[in-house]
Design a protein that fits this description.
Layout lengths: L1 H34 L13 E3 L12 E4 L3 H12 L4 E5 L12 E2 L1 H10 L11 E3 L1 E6 L2 E6 L11 E3 L2 H13 L4 E14 L2 E9 L4 E5 L2 E4 L17 E12 L9 E4 L6 E5 L4 E9 L10 H10 L5 H13 L3 E7 L10 E3 L14 H16 L8 H14 L1 H18 L5 H15 L3 H11 L5 H20 L5 H34 L9
């Protein structure tokens, strides 16, 4: 029966592609026309931008200021420093961070570490190799391995304590003579005639200082107080994570992340050291039960615990009883930059997606590779006109990888979350069964999720294939009126979930090929 679904999926995908391609051509022409209009070059000045008018940048001994030394900032500092740039990094707190996310690096992200020469940063922190996922639903499970056959044996996912990883990268960056790490809080971007010239910041000791450079890169994380002047921040909080650490237990599938399709939304398990397993319980919405009065512990024991694999149950209850329960909101924010001469946004300050798929670090590291390759031919960063053109190319060239991973994260979260709607239930089951088929049915989606094949067109094709597979399950072998109606509703639900994503994604497939960097070369 599987071959029938393949044929149906291919036909539907081709028809859908033709339709969306025609839709794109009209949209692309409009986009191209609007981007060439004078209004696209207006750079608004927000509250966190201060006009200088003193031209002191001529005396600067710094090429690039980086605000923030998290994953993106630290990796970027080392990368640009290794290329000979004089880099000044200003970070609010240089102590080891303690977070419950940013702990799973997909294989695609690890490949970017190798490209940047910082793969040794996962050494000596008890990082664990990850080879794929185990997906659980209604007592059944299927193992989805990363398709790593064509890669070096060292290529796999890595999971670790986020703070340990960041400290290793900070040490790596600080090992370069031309990279300076300083603890301080940047309060203002300094602007002169529409161009960012540097920053004003307060040192650890409370002293107010000013630093100048021809390029300032803001990587100060999801709580950034500087991004309003550089982008249009539309932050959404679809859910919250409740974090626990399970100790001295083993996952049912070793060296795999575990995703439980629970009610109301997914539960994640993955190793963060040789003796610890991170558990993240997703709770939809922005309000969670109180930890202080015991409501959270009660919720975890009565609602969540019955849905987790029996092999982890005892350790899960023990972790709750220890009381180290942490929560954090899951933010998503599309990239909507205001192209501003002399400044650039990167990392979570610029673009966020639901952390369900663990794609954030892969996107950030991919962005760094793009920026490094763009800046290499530009020897004089003080050439403001040339620098501006290169930075505008960055926003285009990052889109295929970033938008594929972002789109997949948003769509999978909606598909994997429970719903009383029969069509939504059927779609959730169809997705689980489709992935359980193995072979090309699982390798394709897992290649997308892992960052090994982040191609927008592949994501679009799998969207259509899952939808057709779901309808096919309902109509074969004999359709009934109820099944036909459910199938129609399933298609309607798929459109409601995926329509905006696909219409947003398809222009990226072509737009990135029509816009080359200033040196005329694709990256």
């Amino acid at each position: 029966m599987a071959y029938e679904y393949i044929v149906e999926g291919v036909i539907a995908s081709l028809l859908g592609f033709v339709f969306l391609y025609n839709t794109f051509i009209r949209g692309f022409n409009k986009t191209k026309a609007s981007s060439s209009s004078p209004s696209s070059m207006v750079f608004p000045v927000e509250n966190c931008v201060k006009e200088t008018g003193n031209g002191e940048i001529a005396g600067s001994t710094t090429d690039i200021i980086i605000v923030g030394a998290g994953v993106a900032g630290s990796a970027l500092a080392y990368t640009l420093g290794k290329d000979g740039r004089r880099v000044h990094v200003i970070e609010r707190d240089l102590n080891e961070p303690d977070r419950i996310v940013g702990e799973l690096l997909q294989p695609g992200g690890y490949i970017k570490l190798i490209e940047l020469g910082i793969e040794d940063c996962v050494d000596e922190i008890d990082a664990q190799r990850v080879f794929g996922y185990a997906l659980y639903k209604d007592g059944k499970n299927t193992r989805l391995s990363y398709p790593l056959e064509n890669f070096h044996s060292d290529v796999a996912g890595r999971s670790f304590h986020n703070g340990r990883f960041i400290q290793r990268m900070r040490q790596k960056a600080a090992s370069l003579r031309n990279v300076s790490l300083e603890q301080g809080t940047v309060t203002t971007l300094l602007e002169e005639n529409g161009t960012i010239k540097g920053v004003q910041y307060k040192t650890k000791g409370g002293q107010e200082l000013i630093a100048y450079a021809p390029l300032t890169i803001v990587c100060d994380g999801c709580f950034s107080n500087l991004r309003r002047s550089l982008c249009d921040p539309k932050v959404d909080v679809p859910s919250c994570f409740v974090g626990l650490v399970l100790e001295n237990c083993e996952l049912p599938h070793a060296n795999h992340g575990h995703v439980i399709l629970a009610d109301p939304s997914p539960i994640l398990f993955y190793p963060i050291s040789s003796t610890e397993i991170r558990c993240l319980v997703d709770i939809p919405g922005q309000k969670v039960p109180s930890v202080s009065n015991g409501e959270m512990a009660h919720y975890l024991k009565t609602v969540v615990a019955p849905q987790i694999p029996p092999e982890l149950y005892a350790s899960f209850i023990s972790s709750i009883d220890k009381g180290n329960i942490r929560t954090m909101p899951n933010r998503s924010m599309p990239a909507a930059p205001h192209p501003t001469p002399g400044a650039l946004l990167m990392g979570d300050a610029f673009n966020m997606r639901h952390p369900l798929t663990g794609g954030g670090m892969t996107v950030a590291l991919s962005d760094i590779v793009v920026l490094r390759d763009l800046l290499r031919p530009l020897h004089d960063l003080y050439d403001a006109s040339a620098l501006c053109k290169y930075l505008e190319s960055f926003y285009t060239l990052r889109k295929p990888v970033a938008s594929t991973i972002n789109t997949l994260a948003g769509a999978l979260y909606k598909v994997f979350s429970a719903s009383p709607d029969p069509a939504r239930k059927e779609m959730r089951q169809a997705c689980f069964d489709y992935l359980s088929l193995g072979g090309i049915f699982s390798d394709g989606p897992i290649s997308l999720l892992s960052g090994l094949n982040p191609r927008p067109i592949s994501l679009v094709l799998h969207f259509f294939s899952v939808a057709i597979y779901g309808v096919g399950r309902l109509l074969l072998p004999f359709p009934s009126p109820k099944r036909i109606w459910t199938g129609a509703r399933l298609i309607s639900v798929c459109i409601s979930i995926k329509h905006c994503y696909i219409l947003f994604l398809l222009p990226i497939v072509f737009h990135s090929h029509f816009n080359t960097p200033p040196n005329g070369k694709y990256i």
